[in-house]
Amino acid sequence: MINFLSDYPHLTNKYKKLVGISSTVPIEVIYSGGFVALDLNNIFISSPSPLELLKKSTEFAPRAVCSWTRGVLAAAVFLKLKNAVIVTEGDCAHTIPITDILSYRDINVFSFEYPLNHDLKRLKNEIDRFIEYYKTDICSCEKIKEEFDRCRAVLKKIDELTYRELKVSGFENHLNLVSASDFNCDPVLFYKNAREFLDEAEKRPSKSVSLRIGHAGIPPIFSDYYNYISSLGSEVIFNETQRQFSMIDGIGRDLYGAYHNYTYPYSFQNRLKDIKKAISERELDCLIHYVQSFCFHQIEDRMLKNELGDFPLLTIEGDYPAPLNENDRLKIESFISSVERKKYKLKSKKINLLNRKNHAVGIDLGSRSVKIAYYGRYEQKFEIFETMDFIIKYLSGENKKKSFDKFQADILKLSGADNISKIEYFSTGYGRYRASVFDAAPFSEIECHAAGAIYSTGLKNFTLLDVGGQDIKVIEIKNGSIKGFSMNDKCAAGSGRYIENMARILKADLGEISKHYREPEPLSITCATFGETELIAKLIAGVDIKKIMAGVNYTVYARIEPLLNEHRSLSGALVVTSGITHNTAFLEFLKSESGFKKIVIPKNAQFMGAIGAAVLGVS
Ligand code: SF4
Question: Can you give the residue ranges of every domain in the chain?
């Protein structure tokens, strides 16, 4: 067993008194009973190696259980705690098995229950039962609450400095508030540090931020979430649950009232009220809803979207304690820039990419292919490369100038013109920043695809579907602006990669596969890798290969349909772009099953990102 305690030297001298808590509980009771509360979530996430802890946690919980649950379990077990308080009503659906596992490991567990019906009398009885368990009394608990409220009052000011004066960053706000669930096991030191932080922050100049963002949901598991948002010029100025965990809304209330006022454990409606209040009080421009993989809270995401109507909302899902992946960065960046466009009325002007003095080149540097859209004086030209070929040809050398000259020479060849005054380069796609070698201004992918489709179709209200090599994008355009978008997460199921892999198994080319849509064979595995086994089993069982091919095409459609349902334009128009437009069978399924009134396939449908980069760059 790992010697986990050595990672937390500040806990050594109070080790015997530690009581692990799975979530916010009235810690006043624990302290009043002579113990010290330790938030197991904070221990897990602040561990020098949270991933190592998760690996070890497979001893007691399978991989398909949320990382926070496994982290909490691992923290309690590897710290060899003697006591824990687990919230078994009003918190996670996993807390009953957590209680069982901890008891099995000889940890004394008190199950704390927040009444789901928000009944104050029941909550009072529960807190009294808690008080009795810790052999203390309500008066001592209230005295301790008064002391803790001094810490909370400092946190309240830190929170105000965040949204009123913009002197505290989203990350600092998060860290201060989330730590208040256990005051880092030392409320006196916590007060001193928080006070010093506040004094220092008050002297800072106010920051100017592009967007005032709210973070809804549990604290994100990503290590660089807040810093990434700050790096884009915006700031999180509302941390919903961290603020709730800090109990600053309970300052001055009695113990029962404070924990009754706490929104997180009760019905979603309480959280919703708190979020709506923050939107207006803090003048939020948009909200990012963080959800954890395998967490039941994901169900609430739909309710939040419905309740907030047109208010910009992005859902981000996290799994492991790690930095944001490319996909998540792309979503956040696209979301922020689309909200900025609306806020600052940066609407794309009606433009013409031809007939300009300068020539424009849009480069969509994707994970599987690189698309180039060139706009000269009188004509447009397009070219596509496999990404690896493009990298080897233009991006692998050390000498940037040489790479640029080579690329520029090839663009001149593509243009067919000999006299070009100036070429302007604009980039998008996963590799958009790498294209800085060509002095290309980068634009986010979602925005470019939207801009490309608006430019190419002349439509202003539609749903856009783009199926890339590894990702699927569905974007709703309303009045020429992005209203919302979704992307497939984490895996390539249903994307171009899936069809390519299945074609390889069936020894058929993409053109052949894409013809078949009649009597699709039901396939249950949409995974680009594991789908192989199922296909081979069908072939061995003697299923007609044409039906299997139809099944592959239908599988792609079935994977995409829920994303389309999330972003249905009222106009009933669906614009389809990317290489999927060559898949006749897929288009048949779209026509017969998706319910869209009109399906539009623009010219050069594979080049929407590159066209959009040129549109945004030029406009
Ligand atoms: S993220 Fe969800 S599933 Fe995970 S511990 Fe929290 S409430 Fe439970």
Answer: 5-140, 145-343, 359-447, 456-606
* Start-to-end Cα distance in the chain: 61
Per-residue pLDDT, 349: 58
297 Cβ inside 6 Å of ligand 1 = yes
Gap from CA of 205 to ligand 1 centroid (Å): 37
- Dist CA 97 CA 66 (whole Å): 13
- Protein residue with its CA nearest to atom 7 in ligand 1: 92
Which residue(s) pair with 315 in the sheet?
Answer: 289
- Give CATH for domain 145-343: 3.40.50.11900
Ligand 1 atom closest to 218 (CA) = 1
Between residues 556 and 109, which one has the greater pLDDT?
109
Whole-model pTM: value is 0.81
For a mutational test of ligand 1's pocket, the pick from 218, 245, 316, 320, i.e. the residue with the most ligand atoms closer than 8 A to its C-beta, is 218
**Residue 542 Cα distances to 539, 552, 553, angstroms:** 5, 16, 19
CA of 26 to the centre of ligand 1 (A): 20
Q: Give the list of residues 6+ apart from residue 584 with CB closer than 8 angstroms, or none.
A: 514, 515, 517
- Non-local CB neighbours of 387 within 8 Å, separated by 6+ positions: 365, 366, 367, 368, 369, 370, 431
DSSP letter, residue 310:
T
The per-residue pLDDT for range 173-191, each reduced to its tens digit, is 999 999 999 999 999 999 9
Please state, in angstroms and rounded to a whole number, the distance separating the CA atoms of residues 260 and 29: 15
Confirm if 303 and 361 have CB atoms less than 8 A apart: no
Q: How far is the CA of 69 from the centre of ligand 1 (A)?
A: 6
Domain spanning 456-606, CATH class: alpha beta
Question: Checking DSSP bridges between strand 369-375 and strand 380-386, what pairing results, if any?
Answer: antiparallel
Whether 145-343 and 5-140 are alike in CATH topology: the answer is: yes
> What does the pLDDT average to over 159-166?
97
359-365 and 369-375: which strand pairing?
A: antiparallel
Helices (H), 203-267: 225-231, 240-246, 255-261
Could you read off the pLDDT of 269-299 as tens digits, one per residue?
Answer: 999 999 999 999 999 999 999 999 888 888 8
Three-state DSSP class for 316?
Answer: strand
Whether the CB of 69 sits within 6 Å of ligand 1 = yes
Instruction: Kindly state the DSSP code that residue 379 receives in the 8-state scheme.
Output: -
Taking a C-beta distance cutoff of 8 angstroms, is the pair 286, 339 a contact?
yes
CB 335, CB 286: distance < 8 Å: yes
Query: pLDDT, tens digit, for every residue of 33-80?
Result: 999 999 999 999 999 889 988 998 888 888 878 999 999 999 999 999
User: Which class does domain 5-140 fall in?
Assistant: alpha beta
> What is 359-447's CATH topology?
Nucleotidyltransferase; domain 5 (3.30.420)
C-alpha of 104 from chain center: 35
| C-alpha–C-alpha distance, residues 338 and 411, integer Å | 30
E-strand ranges in 369-419 read 369-375, 380-386
| Residue keyed to tokens 């961290």 | 242
CA of 472 from ligand 1 middle (Å) equals 27
